Amino acid sequence: VQLQAFGGGLVAAGGSLRLSCAASGLTFPNYAMGWHRQAPGKERELVAAVLSGGATYYVDSVKGRFTGSRDNAKSTVYLQMNSLKPEDTAVYYCAAKRYGGSWSDTDNYWGQGTQVTVSS
Questions:
Q1: Contact criterion met (CB below 8 Å) for 72 and 29
Q2: How would you classify residue 58: left for phi > 0, otherwise alpha for psi between -120 and 50, otherwise beta?
């Protein structure tokens, strides 16, 4: 199983970025897909999750600014990030979780992370 995340970079506050995560080696519709982030000195947090049917979850700090989506035919999940703030600066990871499990389960799959830096 491989998850490859793309799309990070440096952007000014108020700007936008779109992250993509391509999955291979798993039956994509059977997994909830999540975007997590970890800032220096902070714990990793779940930012957004997208279920196979399109239902989404967002942490309060990104609601109204971030939009998660997925294309099951392409085994790809996306995170559109608008109105970015300096506090969004972090390494962003995509993850795949079996339904019924927890994001902390050791048998989840994780991508390599992509750096997002928002300048003030």
A1: yes
A2: beta
> What mean pLDDT is predicted for residues 108-118?
96
Tokens 């972090």 sit on residue: 90
Q: What is the pLDDT of residues 4-63, one digit of tens each?
A: 999 999 999 999 999 999 999 999 999 999 999 999 999 999 999 999 988 999 999 999
CA gap 41, 52 in Å, rounded: 32
Token couple for 46: 């779940």
Contacts of 106 (CB under 8 A, 6+ apart): none
CA atoms of 49 and 97, how far apart (whole Å)? 10
DSSP string, 38-87: E-TTS--EEEEEE-TTS-EEE-GGGTTTEEEEEETTTTEEEEEE-S--GG
Say whether pLDDT at 104 is over 90. Answer: no
Mean pLDDT across the chain? 96
